[in-house]
Structures are given as C-alpha cells and as structure tokens.
C-alpha cells in the first residue's frame, strides 16, 4: 500500500476507534469496529476469548515463530468532557495530531498495528514463516495483564510487541503492578461528642504520613518501585454527624524484577507494627494485618464477571516473583544499540 493510502487508512481507523467509547467492561463497540476493519481487509477468521478480547491469527505457509501484536482497547473515564480543548470522543485532527480519549493510550498504536498487519499480509500473500497474531485486549485499565496473559496462553507467542507509548524508544521490560489496600478501624460516635468514639480518619492520616516515608527499591533500567496513594474512602459516607468508624486507602505499587508478595508487604507490616507498639493503632481489633492486596469486581461486556486481586498474579495460587522482565535476555541488535529506555 502506498504511504499516503496507508496513512489515510491508519487515521480513519484511529478516529473510528476513538469515537467508539470503550470504558473497561464496555468494549463491545470498539471490538466491533476492529472486526469490521479486518473484514474489510479480507480477514474473516477471528475469535474472542473468555474476557472478550479480539484475537486475529494468520499463519504463513512455512513454520516459524509466533509474533503477537498486543494492544488494549479500553480507556479510563472522562469525568468532565466540557473541560477538554477538543471533544474526547470525536477524534478531531488539529495540526498533526489526533485528539481524543485513548488516542495515545492506546488506540493510535492499536490502529497502527492492525493496519500494518493487514498490509503485510496483503503484500506477502501468506509467503512468510510463522504466525502473526493481533490482539485487541480488554480490561487493561482495571485488571492490567489479566486478559493479556489469557491471550498469551492461547497463542503461545515467541515474541510480543506491545504498543504502549515509549517516546518511540525500544523498551525491553516494564514494571509490574499491584494495588494494596490499607484499612483503619475506629469507634463510631456522634460528632457532637467525639470523645466517646475514635476517628478512623485520624488514624489513617497518621498511617499515610508514615507510608510516604517508605522508599521502594529501584531497578537500574525499570526505575523505582512506585508506591502511590490513589484513593481514600470513609464510612459512613456521608458522615451525617457521625465519627467515621472505617477508612480504606488504596495504593498503586509498581513492581520490580524479583519482588514477591512478602517483600512488597513487609515494609507496611513493619510500619504498622511500630505504630501499634507506640499505641497509635491500639484500637484496631483484627486478627490479620490491616492491609492486603486490593480486590475488584467488574462485569465484562460479554456479561462474564471478573472478581480477583488487582495485581499481576493471584498470590494465593502462585509463589513466583511478581515482576518479570526481558531485561538481560534481549539479543536483538536494536535492543543492544538503543540504551535509552523509559519505563512506564
């Protein structure tokens, strides 16, 4: 395909994907747009897995490696569309950029991979060794890696190319991710007589302040293992003149090579233990640690319900290190020649 025709096809597909709203669990329309594109390019055979991800597999005439092009099609919400300079679901072009929710994360890359794959198949007419797999992945924003691992089990790829934005640099690894939930328990009372209760919010603020002092380990290529507070919830809510008896705080933890459930949670355990020794959290009455891996429940667009830990693996079923990387394993000359890597 001529360069101009390729660009036109790519831009059109990207705009159509942006116009298809696709919050996590609501990806049916964007998956349909991708299916229609592949059909228009002469590809009739594709499947959707148990999560609803679209998988397109084309095998060459000779045996060879399986190459997987992986890109997620779900996006995070748009709380206030009116605050956008350009409408978030129209895919408008301004200058040399396409604007819209998911344009860079990552419908632009998904479009590029889909168009490039179809052009390659058209030009090669199947005269290549191995298999080419395209995957439009769902639920990445909520359960990062869960649906992607399902696809990898189905196609067993030798090479995976992920289209996440990297500043056009070749990355050979990525930090993992887990969510950690911290809880504090207080004693409810009427806010007119707070001395008769114990405010769980104050307890949580003490914990948050100390958690900020924790310095996660650092990897020479992947960077720091980030520990960042992402939300706080108190109960009852609204308070309505009641001293809060319960607070939950969620932390996003970016994981490094070799880290385990125990090594990630140990600094938090030590922090809580020290606070309890000083009597700061003596009111917490629990037989387990007041923190754990966050759980989440999500209904998929194919009506299946997903209920699991928001981490890379189920820690109760797998004891292997959480964060794995291709660091040190890359042998491709491009990887050796390009030392600049910007971790996600």
Short précis:
The protein is of the alpha+beta class.
Question: Explain this structure to me?
Answer:
The chain has 344 residues and is an alpha+beta fold. It has two domains: 163 residues, 3-Layer(aba) Sandwich (Aminopeptidase), CATH 3.40.630; 134 residues, 2-Layer Sandwich (Alpha-Beta Plaits), CATH 3.30.70.360. Helices cover 28% and strands 24% of the residues. It is built from seven helices and 15 strands. The radius of gyration is 24 Å and the shape is elongated. The two termini are 33 Å apart.
Q: Topology, pairings included?
A:
Elements lengths: L2 H17 L8 H13 L6 E2 L5 E6 L2 E11 L19 E3 L2 E3 L3 H22 L4 E9 L8 H10 L3 E4 L13 E10 L14 H12 L6 E2 L3 E2 L2 E9 L10 E10 L5 H17 L13 E3 L1 E5 L5 E5 L23 H5 L7
Parallel strand pairs: 3-6, 3-7
Antiparallel strand pairs: 1-2, 2-6, 4-5, 8-12, 8-13, 9-10, 11-12, 14-15
Helix pairs in contact: 1-2, 1-3
What labels describe this entry?
alpha+beta, five-stranded mixed sheet, disordered C terminus, 344 residues, Alpha-Beta Plaits, single chain, 15 strands, four-stranded antiparallel sheet, Aminopeptidase
How would you characterize the largest beta sheet? 5 strands, mixed
| CATH domain fold name of the largest domain | Aminopeptidase
Overall number of structural domains:
2
Put simply, the count of helices is 7
Give, in order, the helices and strands. Answer: HHEEEEEHEHEEHEEEEHEEEH
Overall pLDDT, averaged? 81
Structural class: alpha+beta
Tell me the span between the first and last alpha carbons: 33 Å
Q: Cα-atom Rg, whole angstroms?
A: 24 Å
Quaternary organisation = single chain
Number of strands: 15
Please state roughly what percent of the residues sit in beta strands, choosing from under 5%, 5-15%, 15-25%, 25-35%, 35-45% or over 45%: 15-25%
Can you tell me the overall shape? Answer: elongated
- Low-confidence segments: 281-292, 312-344
Percent helix range: 25-40%
Q: What is the architecture of the largest domain at the second tier of CATH?
A: 3-Layer(aba) Sandwich
